[in-house]
Amino acid sequence: MQFEQIIQKLQSLSNPDAACGMARYGINPQNNLGISVYQLRMIAKEIGTDHGLALQLWASEIHDARLLACFIEDPHQVTETQMDDWASAFDSWDICDQACTSLFDQSIFAYIKVHQWSTRDEEFVKRGAFALIAGLAVHDRTANDDDFEQFFPLIKTGATDNRNYVKKAVNWALRNIGKRNQLLNTRAIQTAYEIQHIPASSARWIATDALRELTSEKVQQRLCVKKKKKVR
Questions:
Q1: Given a cut of 70, is residue 232 above it in pLDDT?
Q2: Which domain holds residue 182?
Q3: 117 to each of 37, 38, 100, 167, 213, how far by Cα in Å?
Q4: Domain end call among 42, 74, 106
Q5: pLDDT tens digits, one per residue of 147-194
Q6: How many distinct structural domains can be found in the chain?
Q7: Do 43 and 98 fall into the same domain?
Q8: Are 14 and 33 in contact (CB under 8 A)?
Q9: Measuring CA to CA, how many Å separate 8 from each of 1, 58, 83, 125, 187?
Q10: What is the spatial distance between Cα 104 and Cα 70, in angstroms, rounded to a whole number?
Q11: Contact in structure between 159 and 198 (CB atoms under 8 Å)
Q12: Residues 13 and 50 in one domain
């Protein structure tokens, strides 16, 4: 499927009412056709992996086309420069999250970008650092506990950022690490208690919300079952 065909297909699926609805949930309405992620993933399945086409779709600056680019891009062909360029163009939390948890977390540069982006000032770039952590905690099956232990200091520092999209991503990262296994759950809970004592409203919210989930019976039972399966 060629670039022009895909743009025509996306435009034919345009749903202005849906785009307005998305705006109410904080999704940037600019250049947004209002196509659901479900529909975009179906189109991505038809296209398959295509690095060149992904670059063209991203360059179009159409919100939906950029989401589609995240779904068809080859993580093995993604470069550091590309990751930085795309991150700098993030203008909505959904673009940030899909890029980081559907693509960038599979790149060999993912861990490097976590450290680099966590110190950036731009709200969605900084969110990207913690969205990457959240994605890696779920998708990186080869990582060891030390790989995630290194993120706790970044999470504690990030917890002082009161901006809504940053603090929510910091919370997301902490919770996902804490659901990876029992050891990391213990460390995540400990980190949450440390964050709770930081004199910032964002830190208190992050800690309280994370502790609610990480100490819950549901999560503890799931981690216990996971440990037993691993022992076998």
A1: no
A2: 81-232
A3: 25, 28, 12, 14, 26
A4: 74
A5: 999 999 999 999 999 999 999 999 999 999 999 999 999 999 999 999
A6: 2
A7: no
A8: yes
A9: 11, 15, 27, 30, 50
A10: 9
A11: yes
A12: yes
Give the CATH number, domain containing residue 209. Answer: 1.25.10
Q: What are 128's two structure tokens?
A: 């990207």
Distance in angstroms (rounded) separating the CA atoms of residues 188 and 177: 7
Residue in the block written with tokens 């179906």: 42
20 and 29 in contact (C-beta within 8 Å)? yes
Is the pTM of the predicted complex or chain greater than 0.90?
A: yes
**Confidence bin at 109 (pLDDT 50/70/90):** very high
Tokens of 93: 């939390």
HEC string of the chain equals CCHHHHHHHHHHCCCHHHHHHHHCCCCCCCCCCCCCHHHHHHHHHHHCCCHHHHHHHHHCCCHHHHHHHHHHCCCCCCCHHHHHHHHHHCCCHHHHHHHHHHCHHHCCCHHHHHHHHCCCCCHHHHHHHHHHHHHHHHHCCCCCHHHHHCCHHHHHHHCCCCCHHHHHHHHHHHHHHHCCCHHHHHHHHHHHHHHHCCCCHHHHHHHHHHHHHHCCHHHHHHHHHHHHHHHC
Distance CA 113, CA 125 (A): 10
CA distances from 211 to 130, 149, 178, 181, 219 (A): 18, 17, 10, 15, 11
